[in-house]
Amino acid sequence: MYDVQPQHQPHAPAAAEDPGPAPRTRRGCDALVDALVAGGVTTLFGVPGDTGVALYDALYERADDIRHILARDERHAASMADAYARSGNRVGVVEVSSGGGTTYVVGGLGEAYAAGVPVLLITSDIHAASRGTGALTEIDQVALFSAVTKWTRVAESADDLPELVARALREAVSGRPAPVALIVPENVLDAPTRARPAPDAAAPALPARRPGAPAAAVAEAARLLSRARRPAVLAGSGVHVSGAWRSLEELAATVGAAVATSIHGKGAVGGDCPWSVGVVGNNGALPGANALLREADTVLLVGTRANATDTNSWTGPARGGVPVIQIDIDPGRAGRNFPGAIALPGDADTVLRQLLAEVIPVDDSERALRLTAVRAAAQTPAPAARPVEPAPGDGPRLLPDEVVRVVCAGLPAGTPVIADPGTPTPNVAAYWKQREAGREVIVPRGHGPMGYAIPAAVGVAMARPGTPLVSFTADGSFAMACGELETVSRLEVPVLFVQFTNHSLGWIKMLQHLYSGRRYFGVDPGTIDAVAVARACGVEAHTVGSTAELQERVADFAERPRPVYLDVEVPHMIDYTPPVPAWDRGPAGNAERPVY
After folding, report:
1. SS3 529
2. What kind and span of H or E run contains 71?
3. 417-419/540-544 β-pairing
4. Span 414-463, pLDDT tens digits
5. DSSP H/E element including 356
C-alpha cells in the first residue's frame, strides 16, 4: 500500500528545517555491547543466528571499538576464543545463537573448561514468552552448558546486562580460570533500557587475585625441599597464567631442583635454563625427563592437574612413593591426586616467592653435582622413530620429528606454535625448542579435540597482531576444520600451516596396532587433496616431498609472512622405542646413576 501525498496543499505552513532522524531507543543489545567494551573486550569471535540479529545491529554501531571475527562454525569460534585467551592471557569472548549454535559451541568449550582457559560465551535465546512451546531452536541452555562452564546466568531484564557482563568477566578469571556463559533472550536484547556500564568498569586482571598459601604449610614444604637430595618440579599452565616464570627458575636454582613441565606447561622455564629437562608424561616426553621425575625424592607440583598423562601413569611422581607438594589456585585441586600431599593453595608466583623466603639454599658443590645429573637427563637421546607399516601409495615421506625440527630451526626464536592432537602433539612437545620462558606453545590437552589448530591459529593471530606463527595439523584434523582456511585468507593472518598426512587416523590406528592385534577398524578414511582445498579457500598451498624443499618453503615464509599451507607426507604409523638411559638402569645396570 502506497502513502500518496497531495501535490498541492493550500495555505500550507512554511517547511521547518529537517531535524534529522529521531534518536534511536537504547536497547538491551546496546547495553550489552557497551558493557563488553567497558570490560576491555576488543575482539569477539562468533557466528550470527536469527535470535541474535539485534546484537549484531548493536555491534555494527560499535565496530570501531570491538572487532567481530566471523568464523565458519561455532565450535571453531570457541577454539579461536580459547587460543586468543591463552596467547594473550586475557578473557576470550565467543558469541552464538540458540539451537544449533549453542550445541555446536559446547564442543569448543569442553577443551577450554578442562584446560582452565577463561572464555566468556554470550548466547542469544528464543523470546521468553515462547519458552516451553517447542519453538524453533528452543533448548535448555543452562543445562546444556552445565558441563563446560563454571558460571552460567540468564539475563531476564535489559537493565541487568551491564552488571551481568561485568560479573561474567570477573568470574571467568577468578580462582581457576574457566568458561562462563551469559544467556540473553531476544526480547531482552530488544527491550528499551537506560542501563549503562559502571563508571569504574575495566578489564579484569588475570589472575584476578594473588592469594598466598598458609604460612605453616609453606614452612613444612620448604623444609622438605631443603632436605631433599633429588628434588624435582613438575610445572603446568598455572605458571603461565600467573607469570611465575622467573620465580620458578629462581627456586629451582636455589634448591638445586630439576624442572619438568606438562604439555600445557611447556615454556614454564626456557630451554636455556640449566635446570630444565623438558616435557614429561606419556605423550611427547623424552625418556631422561620421565626417569628423573620417577627417581626424585621430593616433587613440587606447580599449576598442573598432575593427572595420569602428566605423571606417566602415576610413576613420576608415584602415588604414595615420595613426598609431594602441590601449588594450585584452586584449594580443591591442591593435593587431589596425591593423598597426603602438602597442599599450598594460592597463586603460583605468590607461593613460589613464599617458598623462596623459607628454603635453605643448597651448597655450591652439591648444586654442581645435581646440575650434572639434570643435564645428563635433558640430553638423553630421543626415541628412534620407526615406520611400522607402509602407507598407501608411493612417494617420499618425512618423519614428523624431522619436520618439527626443520620448521623450528627455520623460524625466529619466540614464534608462537599450535599443535593439533594426534601426530602433532608429541612431536611438538618433544622437538620444538623454546629458548625463553613464556607461553609460546599451545596444545589442546584438556580434552585433545581434533580440528583445533586451524581455527586456534586465528585466535592467536588476533591476540598477537602481525606476529607470524606456525600451526601443525594432520589430515584427520584438516577434514574437520578446513573451512576456517577461508577465515585465514579473509583476515590475511601470517600463519604457516604444516599438515602431517598419513591417510589414516594414525594415532588411533597405532593404538589398534599395539593393543588390538592389528585389527584396524574405522581408522582409514579416504584422502582429501588438502592443497586443492586450501587454494580454493584463497590460501597459498604446496605439497612438500623433501627436507630441502621444506627448508626452502619455511625460509620463504620467514622472509614474507602470509597464509601458507604445506602438506607433508609422513609414514602411515610410527613406533617410538624409548631407550633406557645408562644412568637409569638400576642395580643391574652397567653404569652408576649420578645423585642429584
Report:
1. coil
2. none
3. unpaired
4. 999 999 999 999 999 999 999 999 999 999 999 999 999 999 999 999 99
5. helix 348-358
> What amino acid is encoded at 42 in this protein?
T
**Cα–Cα distance measured from residue 551 to residue 407, given in angstroms and rounded to the nearest whole number:** 7
Give the whole-number percent of the chain exceeding pLDDT 90.
Answer: 83
Cα(347)–Cα(345) distance, rounded to whole angstroms? 7
Residue 275 in this model has a pLDDT that exceeds 50: yes
| Strands, E assignment, 222-323 | 231-235, 258-261, 276-279, 298-302
Residues 513/388, Cβ–Cβ less than 8 Å: yes
Starting at the edge strand that comes first in sequence, how are the strands of the sheet with 324-328 ordered? Answer: 276-279, 258-261, 231-235, 298-302, 324-328, 342-345
Strands (E), 188-341: 231-235, 258-261, 276-279, 298-302, 324-328
Report pLDDT digits (tens) over 72-123: 999 999 999 999 999 999 999 999 999 999 999 999 999 999 999 999 999 9
Out of 12-16, 154-158, 225-229, 564-568, which region has the weakest mean confidence (pLDDT)? Answer: 12-16
> What is the H or E stretch that residue 92 is in?
strand 92-96
Please return the burial class of 466, using the count of CB atoms within 10 Å of its CB with bins 0-12, 13-18 and 19+.
exposed
**Among 353, 483, 480, 357, CA closest to 70:** 483
**Among 470, 463, 420, which Cα is nearest to 445's?**
420
Residue with cell 600463519: 495
Sheet holding 469-474, edge to edge: 441-442, 417-419, 469-474, 495-501, 564-569, 540-544
Strand partners, 20: none
Residue listed under C-alpha cell 580454493: 536
**Whole-number Å distance between alpha carbons of 120 and 78:** 9
Which regions of 388-509 does DSSP assign to beta strands (E)? 417-419, 441-442, 469-474, 495-501
Helix axes 53-61, 28-38, angle to 10 degrees: 50
Cross-strand partners of 386:
575
Query: Phi and psi of 35, rounded to 5°?
Result: -70, -35
Residue 590 DSSP class? S
